[in-house]
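In the design runs reported in the main text, the only information available to the sequence generator was the tokenized backbone. The following block is the verbatim input for one such run; it is reproduced so that readers can re-run the procedure and compare outputs position by position.
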């Protein structure tokens, strides 16, 4: 997707395949829209009336070749209240515009958004969201379709400015567009990896993708530890999950060096279970296919690293991915088995389906070796988190309130939101085992909290946060597919860390 910024004083005279013009509620027109309306003898006001166009975000009408207008089409999009709408409304307006544009066959589109206000957000935020939604709106899954949908595609999006701005503002706006594009591309990478079936997207495939990302990029290093190496490190918890599989587990490490040589890195740790059958504690059959998405935490680490390598912030970031399958077989771990983690803590595996925490706990111990500024793990960890928060919010748990508020703020700004959940000691009791230091499940109550409590035991003395993305990482039903979350939250967090130092 080509993204650019252009001063367009006379939008009616601007040639393009589609001119996108906002219309407020009650038929009020922003300046650019009013100017075009005047040129075409009030066709816009007439259409708004005759179609009972409400101007609500998420609504649009298309005008074909209106007389006096150079554009081949005009797409009128609902922009909400003239005084300003909330960030969610702005995003709804823009993403709807991109779905509507898909049906028009336009190859390029010009958005005239100068007079549209978003409550609590500036024009830079709007430009970034435009770049992001243009890019994510262009994603289509085609990899395993023998006949992908043909047809022309939107490949150019222009943010039109009604009047010239200072060079400084123009530069900042262009940067915001590009930033949005880079985050959107990172999200698309995360979505593609999530959507790929588990017979293609294996742990080794994830490793090859990480290597490909690092190839030819001097600021990004990649190393992959095989099972032999993880055994030497004492990662008995991770190895217990992969015990029943044919596909070898991979511990993938990406190191982005953008900061000072010895500056403590931010470490992202992703759960990469490429298929979670439950193991010997086999899952029921319904919707089991969706367990190919159980590597979305890992995919979000790759997507974020991809956005970061494009945006080149001045900080160090390490991405660690624990990748394996969870399968039943004669060599699989049994319920009741006791395994020893890299941290030396013994774990009673009461349920082999609570595998995410087993691979993550060893990855967290490995992460501590970097003496990080913060460790954030991202995991499709519990069905209980979906029950608690649904798909709109990721669950956030942290042993550090400052880190928690930074992540919440990043999520709000990116509109990739998280909601903080408790991590009180009181819940730790549920993890008592008679046969090991800790059990891997905590009984029926507060499943997402006890999972986080389990992880917290491996992040002692670290500034650590855990994002449970079981609900936010993919959509189900007709729109089944990975969402690319929480790449927006993570990238925004990392960029704000770079701005601080
Ligand atoms: N990957 C699942 C969590 C999950 C389930 C995410 C459904 C999204 C939708 C995880 O490995 C798992 O199986 N968790 C169990 C834990 C239980 C055995 C304590 C769960 O949530 O049922
Ligand atoms: Mn599981
Ligand atoms: Zn899982």
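Verbatim output:
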């Amino acid at each position: 997707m080509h993204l650019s910024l252009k001063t367009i004083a006379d939008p009616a005279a601007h040639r393009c395949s589609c001119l996108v013009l906002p219309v407020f509620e009650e038929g009020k027109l922003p300046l650019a829209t009013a100017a075009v309306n005047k040129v075409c003898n009030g066709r816009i006001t007439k259409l708004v009336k005759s179609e009972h166009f409400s101007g609500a975000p998420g609504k649009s009408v298309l005008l074909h070749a209106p007389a006096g207008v150079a554009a081949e089409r005009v797409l009128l999009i609902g922009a909400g209240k003239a005084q300003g709408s909330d960030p969610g409304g702005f995003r709804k307006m823009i993403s709807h515009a991109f779905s509507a544009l898909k049906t028009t066959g336009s190859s390029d589109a010009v958005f005239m958004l100068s007079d549209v206000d978003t409550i609590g957000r500036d024009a830079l935020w709007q430009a970034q969201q435009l770049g992001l939604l243009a890019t994510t709106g262009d994603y289509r899954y085609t990899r395993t379709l023998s006949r992908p949908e043909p047809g022309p595609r939107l490949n150019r999006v222009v943010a039109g400015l009604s009047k010239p701005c200072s060079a400084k503002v123009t530069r900042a706006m262009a940067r915001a567009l590009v930033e949005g594009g880079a985050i959107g591309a990172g999200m698309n990478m995360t979505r593609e990896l999530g959507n790929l079936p588990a017979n293609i997207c294996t742990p080794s495939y994830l490793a090859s993708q990480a290597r490909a990302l690092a190839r030819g990029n001097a600021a990004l290093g990649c190393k992959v530890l095989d099972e032999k190496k993880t055994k030497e490190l004492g990662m008995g918890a991770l190895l217990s999950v992969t015990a029943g599989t044919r596909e070898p587990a991979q511990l993938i490490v990406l190191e982005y060096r953008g900061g000072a040589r010895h500056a403590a890195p931010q470490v992202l740790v992703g759960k990469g279970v490429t298929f979670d059958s439950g193991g010997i504690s086999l899952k029921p059959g319904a919707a089991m296919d969706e367990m190919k998405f159980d590597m979305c935490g890992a995919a979000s680490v790759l997507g974020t690293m991809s956005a970061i390598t494009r945006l080149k912030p001045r900080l160090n970031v390490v991405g660690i991915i624990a990748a394996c399958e969870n399968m039943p077989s004669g060599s699989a771990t049994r319920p009741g088995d006791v395994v020893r983690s890299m941290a030396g803590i013994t774990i009673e595996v009461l349920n082999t389906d609570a595998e995410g925490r087993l691979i993550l706990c060893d990855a967290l111990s490995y992460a501590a070796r970097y003496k990080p500024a913060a460790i954030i793990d991202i995991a499709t960890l519990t069905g209980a988190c979906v029950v608690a928060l649904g798909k709109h919010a990721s669950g956030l748990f942290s042993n550090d309130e400052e880190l928690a508020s930074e992540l919440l703020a990043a999520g709000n700004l990116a509109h990739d939101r998280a909601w903080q959940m408790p991590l009180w000691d009181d819940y730790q009791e549920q993890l008592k085992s008679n046969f090991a230091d800790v059990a891997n499940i905590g009984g029926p109550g507060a499943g997402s909290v006890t999972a986080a409590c389990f992880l917290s035991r491996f992040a002692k003395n670290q500034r650590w946060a855990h994002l449970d993305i079981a609900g936010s990482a993919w959509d189900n039903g007709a729109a089944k597919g990975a969402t690319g979350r929480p790449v927006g939250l993570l990238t925004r967090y990392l960029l704000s860390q770079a701005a601080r130092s």
